[in-house]
Amino acid sequence: MEKSSKSKKLYRSQDRILGGVLAGFAEYIYADKTIVRLIYAVVSILSAGFPGLLVYIIAWIVIPPKPLQF
């Protein structure tokens, strides 16, 4: 018996404020986009801002955009 399983992939979301990274991550983990964005902002501010910004920029470059579905 063969199981067909579709693997879940992380994409940048089309519902974006800046790059769609956090919205895409929220969709990936089935969480509210606003909550994920707020948590990321608080963590970034508490870590002096620069590491959070650097991680976001790297993720923006590495994570592919979500393909358009017709």
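[next item in queue]
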Amino acid sequence: MHCITRLRFKLKDEGKANTDALKNMEGVITVMKSGGQYQVVIGNHVPDVYKTVVELGGFQSQSPVEEDGGGEKGGLLARFIDIIASIFTPILGVLAATGMIKGFNALFVTFGWIDATSGTYQILNAIGDSLFYFFPIFLGYTAMKKFGGSTFIGMAIGASLVYPTLTTLTGGEPLFTLFTGSMFQSPVFITFLGVPVILMSYASSVIPIILAAWFGAMVEKWLRKIIPDVVKAFLVPFFTLLIVVPITFIVIGPIATWAGSLLGQATLFIYNLSPMLAGIFVGGLWQVFVIFGLHWGLVPIAINNLSTLGSDPVLATTFAASFAQIGAVLGVWLKTKQQKLKSLSIPAFISGIFGVTEPAIYGITLPLKKPFIISCIAAAVGGGIIGATGVKLYMIGGLGIFGIPSHINPEGGATLAIWD
């Protein structure tokens, strides 16, 4: 698979990869080994390289691929990062695109260019909300693929969670209330075969569908072993959905939603202990996290915060990092006498303006060491200021300068202030 700048391979034996030859290959910036993945850093044209590699290697397959025990498993953290990266990487581009549209839509209203009641606003808002509102459907596809199940079953599970009619069933008097007097107090409006169902809002949610997809993949694999081949095509999805969807609504969904809310509150509690220190820490180390792939640990937390809290202050502290990086690159371009380094600095600087900093990191600042350290210090200063002033992220949008609209509260009316 690939992300914005890297080809990501899962190799059975990384020792067979000719790393030195790859690093010296024209067009390859560097090679990284992180999170159980062998990563070849290409740059902004990685989608074209990916297509060529897939065609020449014959790797592409629409059917689920079972884990065969090959490859380096790594520790729990490496495996967690691998799962999160595999689930979120395929949709990051569209997620950023829809977030940008929603952000610019809020900006247009703020500037008075369009009215929030106009058809233009409503259509742009529908585009901007499309992926995030129906997130469980998209994550159902990518999560099921990662866990080795049928992707369309994963999408059906996700679609069940955001089925519009279910949201209309929470009006009126509940049948009864569960967990009365506790933080988990929940009214019950419907039952399934006599079992109480706690209806939650799963639009934009992350944790419930990932757990449901994992459970669905396990159930599907078990059913494939016991159902005769002649009827597998329809009986496997039939029984998988009949088993997984009700259990998700009755058990997995509520527990996962409560866990997501607790995670959001815990994140906010830690952040509020000292927003400035949190900004210094996350902002200053963000580029280090990116190098080792550890940033994937914060991405789902931020998305969870957006769905449960409506905003995220943690990932917002990383906003200054890309600008700190291109500032260091600009300094290198101005001071260096090496022609090759000068020629590399210009495209790396332009790429960094739009938030893609891998060419700058691997091609220029990291090899030179001091510019990278300076950029981390500058990012820490920027992160500290962002934390101290309470800047929040209201949507996952574009990177670099395109990330500015993501920090504008859509409910903020005519104000341009990005902090509370």
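[queue empty]
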